[in-house]
Design brief:
Blueprint: H1 2-18, E1 23-35, E2 43-54, E3 63-70, E4 82-89, E5 95-97, E6 102-109, E7 112-115, E8 127-128, E9 134-135, H2 137-146, H3 153-160, E10 166-170, E11 173-176, E12 178-181, H4 182-195
Parallel strand pairs: 3-5
Antiparallel strand pairs: 1-2, 1-4, 2-3, 4-5, 4-6, 6-7, 7-12, 8-12, 9-11, 10-11
Amino acid sequence: MKKIIIFFLIMSVNIVYSQSKIYAFVGKKISVERVKSDDHFYLKYKNVYTVEQTFNDEIKRDTLVFNSYTHMNQINYSVYDYAIIYLVKNDEGKFIQKRTYYTPIILNKDGKWYGFKPSDENIENYESIKVKNLYIKKNLKTVKEIYPEFKKRKYLIEAFYLSLFFNHVNKNSIEIKNLKTAEKLYEEKIKEIFGKKN
């Protein structure tokens, strides 16, 4: 019975997103903090992000505070320092994240943001990027807080920094291989979200 209820909750969230306007931005994480939820079906997180780039006029370049709601501990977006975050508005007109849709953003090169889509299985439309190695010790610490059951650092790196896009240099560093522009990633994600309606 519990699985059926969770299934319908997920379906209802998908419907909310597919029938709502999506507001998206590239943000720099300031903090992600679990707070008391009004609904026992959902965990609630208070997020504070600096807006680096917007895809909608209604999101201003400033610090944005919004709540995320998830029925499980689905806050993988908090692992990355930067991400495209996809929001909707609630009945009060406030930005919220009803399902934790996000796209990891890794770097800004020549004024353009680049990231990757973890579910991509090939590097079509990706660009070969050559920059200095990324130091990810702090990011892996966040992963361990979310998933304490995973002990081996190697598995954490492979789960969040996939070998299609990165070379693993050592336990705290990765080398970037292939990334895609934030604009392309945004367009693909919007198609994916609204495609679920059809």
